[in-house]
Design goal:
It is elongated and about 85 Å long. The chain is built from 5 helices and 3 strands, in the order αβαααββα. With 146 residues, it is α+β, with helices and mostly antiparallel strands.
Length: 146
């Protein structure tokens, strides 16, 4: 052993090296857990209807009628945009909160495509704006809490 170096000081250093990361992890997880609980308490459900025929009669339109797949294709870009908005913007938000969870369901009822989107209230306006940017003819009634 090194002379002049007390044993208790070495033990304190080892304990500090182990305790500080564990303590910080517990501290950060506490705030992340609170963020998840808040998101669960404020979930909203949006029912989005996109008409299959966005134009009344294709013969009257200036552009040719789009097929069913062409109308759904923007959904891929919508999913991509959701991955960017569910993550937080600042370092502290990244450190102390978790990404927002978004649930999606797609159905086709009576010639209309319907999407059910469940997300936390804190990002619901952003999600709604994203829907309108990709699907201009989308009809979104006011969201409700499940």
């Amino acid at each position: 052993m090194i002379t002049g170096f007390p044993l208790y000081l070495g033990i304190i250093i080892i304990i500090a090296v182990l305790a500080i990361p564990i303590g910080l992890t517990i501290f950060i997880r506490f705030f992340q857990h609170q963020d998840v609980e808040e998101d669960v308490k404020t979930l909203v459900c949006m029912l989005v209807s996109v008409p299959r025929d966005s134009q009344a009669k294709p013969s009257e339109a200036k552009e040719p009628a789009k097929d069913f797949k062409a109308l759904i294709a923007p959904m891929e870009q919508f999913y991509s945009s959701l991955t960017t908005i569910i993550h937080q913007r600042t370092f502290f938000d990244w450190l102390f909160s978790t990404p927002a969870k978004v649930s999606l369901e797609i159905t086709s009822v009576g010639g209309a495509i319907q999407f059910a989107i469940v997300c936390p209230k804190r990002i619901s306006t952003i999600v709604e704006r994203q829907i309108h940017s990709f699907f201009a003819s989308a009809e979104i009634p006011p969201p409700y809490s499940p």
